[in-house]
Amino acid sequence: MVQKREKPTRQKVSSAQPKVKRLSVSELKHFQKMLLEKRAEILKNVFQIEDETLKRSHSPGDLSIMPIHMADLGSDNYEQDFAIGLMDGERKLIHEIDEALMRIENKTYGICQGTNQPIRKARLEAQPWAKYSVEFARKLEKGLVLEPEEQ
């Protein structure tokens, strides 16, 4: 006896976005506090780097910092370039933190901007300014997806 095969049925796909579980008010306050503390720490570091760089390059009357040899001059330039690079990286991180604080204000914090799904709390604890889930960030790094602004 030959058995009839059932035709596969099509499942209805809802066009509505699934409801995303938001973080609680206490969780948002916790992450906001973390972000503000990290921001203050970074600003302090940037000011220290700026002060040290300026002191080294603009100490009037201090001949001990004057390069005697071209190699010393190159070393001083390298240190200054290195400090500028550090400050640039810190400023970018401050910008990301500011964006995360805005997401808290806009009630979109903790939601992946690429998938509209919740970002795991462990990721937010490690990197509270994260705007993407780990999975989406990996795809982004591999070039498998475009950043939402670029689509």
Question: Describe it for me?
Answer:
Residues about 5-15 have low confidence and may be disordered. This protein starts with about 25 loop residues before the first helix and ends in a 10-residue tail after the last helix. With about 150 residues, the protein is mainly alpha-helical. The radius of gyration is 25 Å and the shape is flat. It has four helices and no strands. The chain has helices spanning about 25-55, 70-105, 120-125, 135-140. About 55% of the residues lie in helices and about 0% in strands.
Which features would summarize this protein structure in a list?
151 residues, mainly alpha, 4 helices, flat
